[in-house]
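Exam prep: given the inputs below (a chain plus protoporphyrin IX containing FE), describe the expected output before reading on.
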Amino acid sequence: MAAAAIALYRSSIGKKAVMAITGIIGYGFVIMHMVGNLKMFEGRDGFNHYAEFLRTVGEPAVPERTLLWIIRIVLLVAVTAHVTAAIQLTRQGVAGRPTGYRVKRRVQANFASLTLRWGGLALVLFLIYHLAHFTFGVAHHDFVRADPYHNVVSAFSNPAIVGVYLIAVAALAMHLFHGVWSMFQTLGLNRPSTDRLWRGLAVISALGLFAGFATVPLSVLGGLIR
Ligand code: HEM
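Solution:
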């Protein structure tokens, strides 16, 4: 069983399957996080109560933060496996070709994979900054540990920080759009008859995700949330 799983992982299709499964886990988290962020519109009590719920969910059956840590570990493993498989697939693509390309063609198909790689790297860097900013507070100028509402409002009063977050969520939306699209290609689901439909749905969900994330920083900057 284990040997079969390792043999499958060695093949490029096995790595792509790992990328798809871990990508779907990440996508699920991102949607839940976006919806959770919108609770900023419920005010300080609503948002902080929600953050408190995330810390204490499962109590008293399990100690505080148990489920939170399970989610964190699943996410960390998923992101690590996603990045590792991506690097290995890239290397395989190069290693499998002894002479290399005579002419480097960056045509349309390559555009998606290039933006996936560089966008993916940018997202990892953003995630490190984001955790230092809102979770650990070391990159925040006025961090109050048990008051995430205050942390979000005081951070987004600065247009430069709003700019960083808008760029990051735009990169995320593009990454998810291209990621879902390449998954469809791997699964062979793209056909001329349904391409327009899938593409339309992928564009709408990426724009929805961008709008959902962008609303909170922009509303703080515009004075709607204070
Ligand atoms: C406007 C956009 C965003 C806002 C306002 C925001 C806000 C927050 C806040 C306030 C926390 C800390 C919660 C707490 O400790 O109580 C947090 C944690 C986190 N955010 Fe975001 N976030 C945004 C975008 C993103 C994006 C795009 C990602 C992923 C690509 C992301 C991933 C995470 C992760 C992994 C955590 C740590 C969760 C944990 O382990 O406690 N966030 N976010």
